[in-house]
Amino acid sequence: METGSSTASVRRRRTPLLRQLVRSPKALIGAIMLLVIVLAAILAPWIVPHDPTAQDITSTLLPPAWMANGNGSYLLGTDVLGRDILSRTIYGARASLLIGAVSVLIASVIGVTIGVIGGFFGGWVEDVMLRIADMQLAIPYILLAILLSAVIGPSVLTVIIVLGITRWVVYARITRGEVLSLKERDFVRAAVGLGARRSRIILRHLLPNLISAILVVATIEVSLVILAEASLSFLGLGVQPPTPTWGTMLGDGRDYLATAWWLSVFPGVALMLAILSLNMLGDWLRDTLDPGLKVDG
After folding, report:
1. Nearest 10 degrees: CA dihedral of 208, 223, 41, 269?
2. If 91 and its partner were Cys, which of 30, 52, 182, 294 is the partner (CB 3.0–4.6 Å)?
3. d(CA 107, CA 183)
4. What is the pLDDT of residues 147-157, one digit of tens each?
5. Is 156 inside any structural domain?
């Protein structure tokens, strides 16, 4: 029984990822949703029907086009300043995806570097890394956002810095665990026995074997970062107007839920679909590339 299961696992790993993706309905749906969101963000300047920042006081709080008093020119309605909700929702994807990708890149570089160094060298180096991680976890990202907003002002850069330097801990801990396991493998022991330099062992033997775990964590972390960005923007600590973001749109519409629900519902649905698609894809990558990996947020 164990031999058959092991053989099936090897065959699954050898199958091209794209073919495995097509065979997984949940992952395929997530990938398609994410692809649509990414393409909409990239092509936003050419596909939006209106300028997302253009105000029209004669068209304020128009309901979606299919409702009574709706206007066909504004498919999802307008906000309190007469701005097109559809255009702003599409443009909001650009800010969220950009901040998510850059923040995750920064966090992964910091976390993987610290995790590899701590796990490989051990001893007091590892203890220092763990204590720094504990200190980082003790600082809420909201508090750090307030501090940086007071110093340099709320902006896209502020959000990226806050999320980039607060999300590295998960990469560091998972990388450290993987390195501790890889250090005991025969190929690493052989490299050490042959007198290979430490830098060569890390670059040639450890990092290539960490890519799968890092990719899984990064995919799931992007969804968490996008949600965190929306929270900061909702509170006024993130991206500032007139740049449209899903969090800002949710904040603008919270006072009109009873009379103009579309102000919050459509950006909220877009945010939900983006996070759902990333989580579905991340779960599939975890099961496919590293079934033993558990990601704790």
Report:
1. 160
2. 52
3. 24
4. 887 788 888 88
5. yes
